[in-house]
Design brief:
Elements: H1 28-33, H2 39-53, H3 61-67
């Protein structure tokens, strides 16, 4: 069985000035690379979306992966 994580997209696709979607709270990079991320990273994105939803800063998972040389 494949480990799959449903996209948090709610079809309200608009990025704010901080590059965060006002619908799902993912960054533009997290949205564009969602299908390429392993399920563990997708779950990490979802956790950060929750933080952002409640006004807490949360770094972009893709940016962190780039810094670590994983992308």
């Amino acid at each position: 069985m494949t480990d799959t994580v449903a996209s948090p997209c709610v079809s309200i696709c608009a990025l704010d000035g901080d590059d965060i979607c006002v619908g799902c709270f993912r960054t533009g990079q997290e949205i564009s690379r969602w299908g390429l991320l392993p399920a563990s990273r997708q779950r990490e994105v979802l956790a950060r979306c929750q933080q952002r939803m409640f006004g807490h800063p949360a770094a972009c998972v893709v940016d962190e992966m780039k810094q670590a040389g994983q992308v």
